[in-house]
Amino acid sequence: MAERDGFFPQTSQNTVKRLPQRGHYDRATIYPILDAAFVCHVAFVQDGQPFIIPTLYARQDDSILLHGATTSRMLRHAESGGALSIAVTLVDGIVLARSVFHHSINYRSVVVFGHGRLIDAPEAKTAALAAFTEKLLPGRWDDARPPHPNESKATSVIAVEIESASAKIRAGDPGDDEEDLALPIWAGVLPIAQHYGPPIPAPNLAPDIPLPDYLSDYLDRQNQNAAP
Ligand SMILES: Cc1cc2nc3c(=O)[nH]c(=O)nc-3n(C[C@H](O)[C@H](O)[C@H](O)COP(=O)(O)OP(=O)(O)OC[C@H]3O[C@@H](n4cnc5c(N)ncnc54)[C@H](O)[C@@H]3O)c2cc1C
What we know:
Radius of gyration: 21 Å
Structural class: alpha+beta
Number of strands: 10
CATH superfamily of the largest domain: Electron Transport, Fmn-binding Protein, Chain A
Number of helices: 6
Helix content: 10-25%
Low-confidence stretches: none
Order of helices and strands: EHEEEEHEEHHHEEEH
Bound molecules: flavin-adenine dinucleotide
Mean pLDDT: 95
Distance between the termini: 39 Å
Largest sheet: 10 strands, antiparallel
Strand content: 25-35%
């Protein structure tokens, strides 16, 4: 299928076959899911053996950034241009149907396909490390000590251009069969939201260092968004 503006073309690789009405292919749906999660699972095949590795990531425009020790098998595979599939999952609720068969979970998930490329130009590498740090906590890059050259050297940064992607979203109520609706069994959704606890200062933190504003602001924003 030809690419529409803002949409990834649908191919046999990325088309959601099971419950296709839950599939989405537009960046406007896919990118907010990528931006909301912290952890992805990177899958690749080496010598016929599949591996899957959970790791942090950040999205930079149309790429997923991965980083870590230069010795990582996953990063070495990515650096060599190997094919990758990357999954991100947000869990929104437990769906309790009257029948066991219709129990489910509300979720937003994304599957990305692409190939890795090492980012080694110093300026681009610094920008990628900044994107990583800002993904963890906006405002942190300008506050934290920048990487020493030896720390930067020990870290591989990979960009995976998002060549193809899909989102799959389940939302809403249980889908019980008509004949089960009269059963005397509680049915509904138990929502799950990500909640941030109060910050715990490092035990060796000097007592005169206050909580940064960008951290307390972030906390307020996130916990307001998570409120049911
Ligand atoms: C938290 C969670 C729990 C789930 N639990 C179950 C379960 O218990 N049983 C079950 O059968 N399924 C479950 N699913 C759905 C599951 O992810 C698959 O969509 C489904 O099993 C079909 O798999 P398949 O191998 O036939 O995919 P195919 O239809 O062959 O996949 C084709 C393409 O569709 C896209 N795609 C498929 N699934 C997803 C997805 N979830 N997100 C984004 N893109 C996708 C990918 O691009 C993939 O390459 C769950 C999903 C999530 C996120």
